[in-house]
Amino acid sequence: MVSTLTTSLADVASSGATLRAFLHGLPGVDRVGADQRAAMLGTRSIKTTAKAHAIDLAISMVDLTTLEGADTPGKVRAMCAKAAHPGDGAPRVAAVCVYPDLVAVAAEALAGSGVKVASVATAFPSGRSSLEVKVSDTALAVAAGADEIDMVIDRGAFLSGDYTKVYEEIVAVKAACGDAHLKVILETGELSTYDNVRRASWLAMLAGADFIKTSTGKVSPAATPSVTLVMLEAVRDFRDRTGRQVGVKPAGGIRTTKDAIKNLVLVNEIAGDEWLTPEWFRLGASSVLNDLLMQRQKLATGRYAGPDYFTLD
Ligand SMILES: O=C[C@H](O)COP(=O)(O)O
């Protein structure tokens, strides 16, 4: 059954018309219902023992990120040291995410640590360049040691209905990734509607995304609970239909332990606990790790450490 459906989905992209018909044939998202459900799940409280486990799980899912024009090799090395050994027995994070020119620095600093090197690519964050440049950006990052590539979709093409262009770019970038995993950033803050978030999620998955990611962190709103919910529904439904599991990465604006735990509740309730591992769920964030470490220490000792105890990101 699954293979028949997979085959029919493969045909979906055989022409622009069939792709459009498929994406516009997806059920519409009930915006009010999605907002209410996300808000309701965000109020769930968890017991202290479960909280300690949730904090460590969240730390292990962090893609510790720096994407600033002012980034230096020194800053990236310091981040990598913290990513691999956050301190006080906390688990290592999932990945360090940097611009392509800093991949080699991160790869050297993280060698043997188990922490992956992720690189944004494809003319991040706007995606406004030729396909040739995007593919080369990707190939260079992979050659420098990236284990994971975070590409952006062409939002202009998507919003003007040129789904084939978006699809073909993802397929080409996926090919340039080789063994590296591909995360496809939808930039949901520019997609206007939840229906578009659902369509872009399916488009990325059909084209071969290993992960779908909400945002670049450069556009607001970024990873709202509602868009994460819509994307979790999409990966759940995609797996039901094809048998292939795709990961989810909310990114941008996730700053506190509360934000992180709300995301874990969403994953558990919407996609299911098979997504509750760093293999299938990531939190893209520049500063949440410090708060997770502070709350972790508070739970263990009953008090907060001084403000200079944790290195600043
Ligand atoms: O992918 C991650 C984002 O770029 C980080 O955004 P943030 O600085 O809001 O945590």
Percent of residues in beta strands: 5-15%
Overall mean confidence score, pLDDT:
94
Radius of gyration: 19 Å
First-residue to last-residue Cα separation: 48 Å
Say how many strands there are.
8
CATH architecture type = Alpha-Beta Barrel
Whole-number count of domains? 1
CATH class category: Alpha Beta
User: What is the helix/strand order?
Assistant: HHHHEHEHEHEHHEHEHEHEH
> Helicity range of the residues?
40-55%
Structural class: alpha/beta
Largest sheet: 8 strands, parallel
Tally of separate helices? 13
| Low-pLDDT segments, ≥5 res | none
List all distinct small molecules, including ions and cofactors, that are bound in this structure.
glyceraldehyde-3-phosphate
